[in-house]
Amino acid sequence: MTYGIDTDFLVAIEITDHPFHKQADTLLQTLLAEHHDFALAPQTLAEFIHIVTDTRRMPEPLTMTDAITRAELWWQSKEVIRVFPDGHGVTDFFAWLRQHQLGRKRLLDTLLAATFCSAKVNKIITNNARDYKVLEAFEIIGYK
Fold it and tell me: How far is the C-alpha of 5 from the C-alpha of 38, rounded, in Å?
């Protein structure tokens, strides 16, 4: 089974003092032991680097070098399937924005969802279930 990775999960895994680090790590270790794969999109890595280097969001932000290194390790992982926005996904992105009347704060999550959908990934690991439930296309895997 392939699980799509939302940025919040990646942050929780990589930031050891994150409030949900232990829960996220437990889920990760369980899924790895069961030999599952993880879908990862480039936009998730960009958002990850943006968040973990932000002094307003992180009490102890990572340096750009450290953030890039951690993102690259995920991108190179043998358990990761790289997924990319394609024409069908972008069409779904626009359709979902219109259909669900989503605003500007929902752009990145909706594009990520469309990317996963286009790649036939129907499970997303996230603690932001409301960002994806409205689309009615995914099973949400939380870790709180």
Answer: 7
Fold of 2-141: Rossmann fold (3.40.50)
Instruction: Tell me the three state secondary structure of residue 119.
Output: coil
The tens digit of pLDDT for each residue in 15-46 reads 999 999 999 999 999 999 999 999 999 999 99
Rounded to whole angstroms, the Cα distance separating 21 from 78 reads 22
Question: Concatenated DSSP letters for 10-76?
Answer: HHHHH-TTSTTHHHHHHHHHHHHHTT-EEEE-HHHHHHHHHHHT-TTT-SSPPPHHHHHHHHHHHHH
Q: What is the dihedral of CA 45, 70, 123, 136, to 10 degrees?
A: -30
Domain extent listing, the chain: 2-141
Instruction: Tell me the pTM.
Output: 0.95
